[in-house]
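Let us work through a complete example step by step.
Step 1: write down the sequence.
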Amino acid sequence: MNKFIIVFIVLLSAGCTKNNQEGNIEKETFQIDPLKTATVSKMDDPYSLALKIDTIDKDEYSLIVSIDLYDKSFFVSPHSNGNFMGRFALSLSETKNLAMKDSIVEFPKALESYDPFSDRQVNFVKRNTTYTQKLTVGSQKDFEVSGWIKFVIEPRCTMEKVKFVISQRSGVLSVKELDRSAYFGIFSDMVCDVYGPNKKK
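Step 2: predict the structure and record it as tokens.
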């Protein structure tokens, strides 16, 4: 009888240990870090983006960003009125070697339409669109300048971030995309509420 009780206790302890281990594994499986970049399959991408450099004149160029939209996706134009946190934006790191000149040109221009969610007129980009940004070169030496494109793509509601580099080698200017990421979780909570009047960039 005593032997039976001892065997029973040993089996029960082993079962509890196994359950605790499984419980720990389950917690680790469902623990999500919202600060990490989500991985998005290219098959699920609601858009494609291409970059190129065109020569205008000596020391003057155009950075051309072409965006094709799929599955009724859209985003807010950089020229839309209002404080839209997730609208299309292009920026370069500060340097004397390269500078942006004039405002970015959008073609075709996004049409203004009434948006019931924000109760205002908004310029939504819903067609394949090309953006042209004039650039002026301030150095004849070789250099590299980092740049970023950011916008919220709807209806997926993710902040898209495209990192690129503009390089000059032996007087030839070129552009190359370095990284592309889509942010979910805490980022979508912040940037998808683009209509809040108190939102700031």
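Step 3: interpret the result. The two ends are 75 Å apart (CA to CA).
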